[in-house]
Structure to design on (277 residues):
């Protein structure tokens, strides 16, 4: 069984570099699929209130703990949705997520989108700081924050976000944002790391896959890993889950990494954070 190496976040908490994302996993299938992911070797799961499947994630985590897996080995992320911004609303949203998850402590809680026109991400983040201070969540962070949002946040808040979870893949390499993260000590976590599957027919990646005798998904995930990103691919079968985790026993050469870096075309598969409010 493959296992992801751990990455230590800026507050000393460990997360798997490669975890499992559950956007679009139907609620009724979620517990079984997350259990399959855990059996495959995943230890980190990314969900959100928006995904409507926190109950299933929590069920699978509790089943694993009942079966002998240490809770400390497992890592669950959830996120506060855009309609719940503001200090009090965010505290209530956290309670609701925890109720659905059925967990005592959450590993990481993120602001899902900055929603700049709402002008509420600062009080929203202050609620996350309160939860962190109370020990109800082990790490806090943000998602879809652009440089200007991070700068505003750091001007007004105490706790440097542990991660910024952003859309990131070889067609959208986010060079400027990643450089800022490195400067600030914020981990870059890649969402839609496979560009929702659309990148898997890229001819350059197909050729590299042939060279290594690997699948295109494995080449892309290996590029993420070697670039130092945290990454959370979603897959709907145990075979694909295992394939996606099986990327720690080969390496891309520096030349191959540069070739993949060169595929950037600033192509998003999801929304631009400036348009989400
Ligand atoms: N913070 C945010 O705003 C966002 C966060 N996310 C998070 O990131 C996670 C991953 O992103 P997501 O948008 O799901 O997209 P991904 O880039 O992870 O791609 C998932 C798609 O790729 C397919 N796929 C996965 N593995 C393979 C493989 N080995 N071979 C062929 N096809 C494969 C899946 O198919 P199939 O399912 O049929 O196996 C699915 O259609 C989400 O689940 C969520 O947790 C996602 C979007 C936004
Ligand atoms: O996490 C998410 C999953 O994908 C959705 C559609 O692109 C996003 O809006 C959301 O942020």
């Amino acid at each position: 069984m493959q296992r992801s190496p751990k990455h230590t976040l800026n507050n000393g908490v460990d997360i798997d570099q490669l975890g499992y994302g559950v956007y679009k996993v139907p609620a009724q299938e979620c517990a079984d699929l997350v259990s399959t992911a855990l059996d495959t070797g995943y230890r980190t799961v990314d969900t959100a209130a928006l995904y409507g499947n926190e109950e299933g994630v929590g069920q699978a985590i509790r089943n694993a703990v009942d079966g002998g897996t240490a809770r400390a080995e497992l890592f669950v992320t959830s996120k506060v949705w855009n309609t719940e911004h503001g200090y009090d609303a965010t505290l209530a949203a956290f309670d609701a997520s925890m109720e659905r998850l059925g967990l005592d402590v959450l590993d990481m809680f993120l602001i899902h989108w900055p929603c700049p026109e709402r002008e509420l991400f600062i009080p929203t983040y202050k609620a996350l700081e309160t939860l962190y201070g109370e020990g109800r969540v082990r790490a806090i962070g943000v998602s879809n924050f652009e440089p200007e949002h991070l700068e505003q946040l750091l001007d007004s808040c105490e706790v440097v976000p542990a991660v910024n979870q952003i859309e990131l893949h070889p067609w959208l390499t986010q060079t400027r944002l990643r450089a800022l993260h490195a400067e600030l000590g914020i981990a870059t976590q890649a969402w839609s790391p496979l560009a929702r599957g659309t990148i898997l027919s890229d001819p350059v990646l197909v050729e590299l896959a042939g060279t290594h005798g690997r699948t295109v998904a494995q080449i892309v995930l290996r590029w993420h890993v070697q670039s130092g990103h945290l990454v959370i691919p979603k897959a709907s079968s145990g075979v694909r889950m295992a394939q996606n985790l099986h990327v720690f026993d080969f390496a891309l050469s520096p030349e191959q990494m540069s070739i993949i870096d060169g595929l950037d075309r600033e192509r998003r598969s999801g929304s631009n954070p400036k348009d989400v409010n």
The pocket of 1,5-anhydro-D-fructose (ligand 2) is lined by residues 23, 48, 50, 112, 270-271 (CB under 6 Å). The mean pLDDT is 98. The longest strand covers residues 137-143.
